[in-house]
Amino acid sequence: MERKRVLITGAAGFLGSHLCDRFIKEDYHVIAMDNLITGDLQNIEHLFALENFEFSHHDVSKFVYVPGKLDYILHFASPASPIDYLKIPIQTLKVGSLGTHNLLGLAKNKKARMIIASTSEVYGDPSVNPQPEEYWGNVNPVGPRGVYDEAKRFQEAMTMAYHTFHGLETRIVRIFNTYGPRMRLNDGRVLPAFIGQALRGEDLTVFGDGSQTRSFCYVDDLVEGIYRLLLSDYAQPVNIGNPDEITISQFAEEIIKLTGTTQKVIYKDLPVDDPKQRRPDITKARALLNWEPKISRAEGLKITYAYFKSLPAEALINKEHKDFTTYNR
Ligand SMILES: NC(=O)c1ccc[n+]([C@@H]2O[C@H](COP(=O)([O-])OP(=O)(O)OC[C@H]3O[C@@H](n4cnc5c(N)ncnc54)[C@H](O)[C@@H]3O)[C@@H](O)[C@H]2O)c1
Fold first, then answer.
1. Are the C-beta atoms of 279 and 123 separated by less than 8 Å?
2. H helices present in 232-320, as ranges
3. What is the DSSP string of 180-242?
4. Which atom in ligand 1 lies closest to the alpha carbon of residue 59?
């Protein structure tokens, strides 16, 4: 039988590369697309020799052309960490809006089903906890995080419009903080930040008083949820994340224990519009997809720490980010 063909954007990134692995495992033909603005080919180079894998170096904010049939499109291209999207705000807005529009057009043309990577950030700094899909959010459009949050909200609106007006088959996954191997140590997200500090023998920096909460989902659990949602018939947004909530202070203590570092926790000012609480309500995912996370934080952190420890020493250097002016001008 002919293989199903899937286009994965953001494929050289953290989540995109794990999705490539999963679809290869399921015997799909995978077209991986990325402009490498925050991603790294090392994440997918183990797939390059496969006959059912191809890579396309392309910016999806520009017109996207893919020859041949397509069954599914997974749109995961977007800067995702605060450091990245504060550094490249315009590209972040463009990939969420123009990029999504280009890919929806492609999906319509190919009669493909498309899933978009939305985020818990659409809830902003939420006034309800845990956050159900029905909560509309509390986002500051002109704050520093607005470029990411509003791009994702627009992305959802555009996707729903293609579903409603063009009858396109669409899926929307609202992803809560996810972690695992292939995250970058210096992307500014709290988990790699703490582990990087521990590995460099620095104190762990908590922003604010540490009482703000997060809940961390291991990447394999997330990928399973995305796979099930894609193959389901549900077009409304679905939260995928781990409801096991922890304060940032407690989390820092867990990392200290895990890494055995002798450093301490230091406190700095809270960044503007930092959400005070984050916990997914996963009632829908449980009911519709029969999905819930299986991997505990202790287990997932062990695997992730082993990955970071295995990296070459230069990965530990807290170097400035790439020169983004060479991309996407
Ligand atoms: N990791 C999380 O916890 C999380 C949480 C919520 C949502 N998400 C969403 O999941 C997706 C992937 O996130 P990630 O954590 O893997 O981030 P990542 O930075 O590791 O991966 C993003 C990838 O997209 C690529 N990219 C960015 N702009 C592009 C463009 N214009 N054209 C082509 N490629 C482009 C980057 O080069 C990178 O490889 C993003 O859409 C993000 O918003 C992630």
1. no
2. 248-259, 283-289, 297-310
3. -TT--TTSS-HHHHHHHHHHHTPPEEEETTS--EEE-EEHHHHHHHHHHHHHSS--SEEEES-
4. 32
> Could you tell me the domains of the chain?
5-178+217-240 (3.40.50.720), 185-215+244-278+295-316 (3.90.25.10)
Between CA 235 and CA 238, with CA 237 as vertex, the angle to 5 degrees is 110
CA of 264 to the centre of ligand 1 (A): 31
Indicate the DSSP class of residue 75.
Answer: E
What does the pLDDT profile of the chain (329 residues) look like in tens digits? 899 999 999 999 999 999 999 999 999 999 999 999 999 999 999 999 999 999 999 999 999 999 999 999 999 999 999 889 999 999 999 999 999 999 999 999 999 999 999 999 999 989 999 999 999 999 999 998 999 999 999 999 999 999 999 999 999 999 999 999 999 988 888 999 999 999 999 999 999 999 999 999 999 999 999 999 999 999 999 999 999 999 999 999 999 999 999 999 999 998 877 788 889 999 999 999 999 999 999 999 999 999 999 998 878 776 544 333 222 22
Active-site residues, by number, are 148
| Mutate-to-test residue for ligand 1 from 37, 116, 118, 185, highest number of ligand atoms within 8 A of CB | 37
Q: How far is the CA of 78 from the centre of ligand 1 (A)?
A: 4
**Which is the closest atom of ligand 1 to the Cα of 60?**
32
| pTM score, whole prediction | 0.95
Asked if 72 contacts 115 with a C-beta cutoff of 8 angstroms, the reply is yes
Query: Which residue ranges have their beta carbon within 6 Å of ligand 1?
Result: 9-10, 12-16, 34-39, 59-61, 76-80, 95, 99, 117, 119, 175, 177-178
Copy the structure tokens of residue 304.
């992730």
Residue 113 to residues 17, 45, 281, Cα–Cα distance (Å)? 20, 27, 25
Question: How far apart are the CA of 232 and the centre of ligand 1, in A?
Answer: 23
